[in-house]
Amino acid sequence: MKKVLSILLTAAMIATLAGCGGKEEPAASAQEPVKEEAPAQEAEPAPEAEAEAPEEAEAAPEASESYEPVTLKVAYMPNYGSLWSVLTAQQKGYFEEVGITVEMVEFADGPTIIAAMESGSIDVGYIGQGAHKLCINGQASIFALSHISNGDALIGGAGITKVEDLAGKKVAYSSGSSSEDILVNSLTAAGMTMDDIEAVDMDASAIVTAMLSGGVDACATWSPNSLKILEEMSDATKLTDNMSFKDTTISLASWIVMPSYAERNKDILVRFTKALFKAMDYAADANYEEVSQYVATQVAQDYDSVFAQRGDADWLTGKEVSEGAANGQVESYYETQKQGFVAAGAVEADPVPAVADYVMLDVMIEAGK
């Protein structure tokens, strides 16, 4: 799948450029060994104690590098795509290995996460496709690519089987997010604009209820909302998804930080990304059952609905991201994405920044070493 997607993404870029826990436990080596006093007449145990000493001395080089402990408030959204790597890193002890404790904080969407980061209540966060335009416009910096998504969808209710059927209909979406992104892309491809529909801007969590109750005729949303709607509405139709626009754009998910934080704490971002990459290596091509259980527990959803989300993306390994950052492939992904946003009129920055101005490729490269 990844080889095919890579070919498609290369073609997309060409077409586009021609034309979007708990507290850290102290290390065991830091604990004082329990010493037993041998009776005076028994001198033989002493050599055994001396024999154990070299083993303790040899163990020291094998211990993980000494890091200054740090606690990070991490923003996420309640779905598999947002949590697949960060929860794996937490549960498998990869963050602990680099001296990081994470405190997970749930949000509904990317723009809200960025607003929380701007207020100082969040250190690092995850965003989907739509919020990347805020990074291009200078509001946040990207320090790690998570995956290539196919989790967004435009869904029509009864009698709506193609995008053109949305004319004059109520369509729910969440502004500034990947929901708005796929809605605009779908309308544009059909020769329509937001003025041709009755667009209803609402919180992501309210879209499912509005759709199932018949309060709107269609909606643009992401997984697992999209999966729930399609499962519970027998007359619903998926009109488009991210792959519908593979020739002109690419849907990315990333980890972000405030530019000011990045300037002061690059070493922490490298450590965080190193743990994230190790988790991605573990979770990308296997272990879906285990990771789904982590996510289901975190978001209090049933296991089956979470497990169904494993098909929502091309799950990249940390090795693929790090090597791609070094050889230019990751930069090409973000360039293709940026050009799609430019074409859609979503980029306010003038001049339009280079990818390297808001994507920290050096962090991805260093974290993979």
Structural class of the secondary structure composition?
alpha/beta
Low-confidence stretches: 1-63
Elements, N to C (H/E): HHEHHEHEHEEEHEHEHEEHHHHEHHH
Instruction: Give the overall average pLDDT.
Output: 86
Instruction: Tell me the strand percentage band.
Output: 15-25%
Task: Count the DSSP helices.
Answer: 16
Strand order of the largest sheet: 2-1-3-10-4-11
From the N-terminal CA to the C-terminal CA, the straight-line distance is 26 Å
- Principal-axes geometry comes out as globular
Main beta sheet strand tally, sense and closure = 6 strands, mixed
Question: Portion of residues in helices?
Answer: 40-55%
Radius of gyration from CA coordinates: 24 Å
E-strand count = 11
Task: Describe the protein in words.
The protein has 369 residues and is α/β, with parallel strands linked by helices. The chain is built from 16 helices and 11 strands. A 6-stranded mixed β-sheet has the order 2-1-3-10-4-11, sandwiched between helices. It has a 5-stranded mixed β-sheet with strand order 7-6-8-5-9, with helices on both faces. Helix 7 (178-189) links the parallel strand 6 and strand 7. The longest helix has 18 residues, at 266-283. The model is unreliable at 1-63 (pLDDT under 50).
